[in-house]
């Protein structure tokens, strides 16, 4: 084994940064983590601080590398939260405004104005993404309206700039901005004009792997290490599954869920994106997965674990929970949809609602998979995938095996694998579909979604 045999993976997520030191077999030698504060100054606003994000990276890396011979570390790979928008002063390099999180909805009026001009379909055609404030473009416009002449980017752009001094963005992250021509592989002048984003404010688009810069003195314990891979977090998890992704679809079950498969699809309910380098992928984003269970736990005054236990022992028995707390994302992309619980009777119990909450996650994932076309397996990862009940429901509704990764932290591992140039196999637990016809359940779910999507004036959706 080469003396410089370790790769440092830095997984910068919404609530924390995790660092893993990984060897070529995929084994985690050391780890470290640090929290990242999140602020909610107004309803629908979700903010972070760019310096606090950078500080969390340095703190997690310091903890991970404590006592490690730096000479053994040959490369650094990043996995980052996507779509969040960052702005900083070109002259000083200091943050010039808040980081607008991927969940932030304050730029909705900017999207509404473009929709009223009839430009939504053109935005979709060029970017591969539906016009929605989840993506970076409208948030970047909002920031530039308050900080003109600034540099902008996503979280990977900010970290690469802060650590190497180079203003760049990885191609997969660029494809999530809604400013990128996903087929041409470059910034779209037409989209820049629509959103009013000057090209001089944007980073250069770079591949996901290769020589992406050497970390400077601002990187502290990381100084002198080369960055050889950058991926969006969902893309990194997909990469970690290795050969298993052929013919399959990857589902990361978290606060929300990301459903991805390699290759483009025609259905407009899912997004066309870049997986890594110039590899196309289809993706559907679900806004509320684990968040649904957390909400119900708070609502009932119990723990999320208790919700899982209730769901495991109960039948929903005609109760459906549609978690459209902030509208519905893929495949509906309906920001007017409202959350609802339907099918309640005087005999309904908390256990039935708990079961309906867990089933809502699997139903939403199945909706996206249906839009993507036939698959022969579901590859599951993320925190909520630890729920055996959810995994079995998912297998039953999709009718294909669900293979749950036994290895945690796939986003970090995917970044390590790409940065290090190795692809060790990971192991799985498998859930096979049970005999039975679940079409009636799917039909009833779609009827519940239709009720959630009925506009408030009472006219049909």
TrEMBL record:
Residues annotated as domain Carbohydrate kinase FGGY C-terminal: 250-420
This protein's UniProt keywords: ATP-binding, Kinase, Nucleotide-binding, Transferase
SUPFAM superfamilies: Actin-like ATPase domain (SSF53067)
Domain of life: Bacteria
Pfam family, one: FGGY_C
Domain Carbohydrate kinase FGGY N-terminal: 7-238
Gene Ontology terms, MF aspect: kinase activity
Entry similarity comment: Belongs to the FGGY kinase family.
Protein name per Swiss-Prot or TrEMBL: ATP:glycerol 3-phosphotransferase
Organism from which the protein derives: Paractinoplanes ovalisporus
